[in-house]
Design a protein that fits this description.
The protein is α/β, with parallel strands linked by helices. The protein has one domain (3-203): P-loop containing nucleotide triphosphate hydrolases (Rossmann fold, 3-Layer(aba) Sandwich). It contains six helices and ten strands, in the order ββαββββαβαβαβααβ. The protein has helices at residues 25-40, 90-97, 114-130, 159-167, 185-203, 206-215, and strands spanning 3-5, 10-18, 49-53, 56-63, 70-71, 74-82, 102-108, 140-145, 174-176, 220-221. Strands 1, 2, 3, 4, 5, 6, 7, 8, 9 and 10 form a ten-stranded mixed beta sheet that branches. The N and C termini lie close together (6 Å).
Length: 222
């Protein structure tokens, strides 16, 4: 859940990129980080932190999205995480999901990964349940990644099938994308951020902030 630091006047919101192995979660975060670094230069204080697991990586960085404004007078800080795709690192997946506020599910558009997409979404449900969370209650955006491979003549799962497999009941926003080329990468993030912030605001009332301020409490969760 979002963490409020009244001393620094910051509210931290956590968005996790989830999906099967090699679907493009890491590529998304690297692209976002590099573009922000290019745009913001020295103003981007955060570093891209990488935790290596054999063949997989968990990434993390945070930043202040100025264009998204403040929440109840507090500066907004987005924390972005990826999870390892391989099932053998399921304990790490669970750990990363702790305190999640919003989700981006990165699905692989290659036909050979269709079943992996379905199984990973079910795995997401199970790992959220471990934290007493329900997928339907968390802001979610789907990204249909690797759409650029069609330009190389590769057959891809059509969007209608991806929607039917993964999003027929959830009916979450979705974007065809290429994390490698940056197509719809920021559009995916912006949609997830806006939905997540809206959810956080609904949970956070002015009276709660004032009460915590009066009590001098910092780092409390909403």
């Amino acid at each position: 859940m979002a963490i409020i630091n009244l001393k620094e006047r910051i509210i931290q919101v956590k968005i996790v990129y989830y999906g099967p192995g090699r679907s493009g979660k890491t590529t998304n975060l690297i692209y976002i980080y590099n573009r922000l670094k290019q745009k913001l230069g020295g103003k981007l204080k955060s570093k891209l932190i990488t935790i290596d697991t054999k063949g997989e990586r968990t990434l993390f960085f945070d930043f202040f999205p100025v264009e998204l404004g403040k929440i109840q007078g507090l500066d907004l800080k987005l924390q972005l995480y990826t999870t390892p795709g391989q099932v053998i690192y399921n304990s790490t997946r669970r750990l990363v999901l702790k305190g999640v506020d919003g989700l981006v599910f990165v699905a692989d558009s290659l036909p050979s990964r269709r079943q992996a997409n379905i199984e990973t979404l079910q795995n997401l449900r199970e790992n959220l349940a471990y934290h007493n969370l329900v997928l339907e209650n968390i802001p979610l955006v789907f990204q249909w990644n690797k759409r650029d491979l069609a330009e190389e003549g590769l057959q891809l799962i059509d969007i209608e099938t991806l929607e039917a497999d993964l999003n027929s009941e959830l009916k979450a926003p979705s974007f065809p994308a290429s994390a490698l080329k940056g197509y719809n990468v920021f559009e995916t993030l912006k949609s997830a951020a806006k939905l997540t912030i809206k959810s956080v605001i609904q949970k956070l009332t002015v009276s709660e902030v004032e009460k915590r301020a009066a009590g001098g409490e910092n780092g409390r969760q909403t």
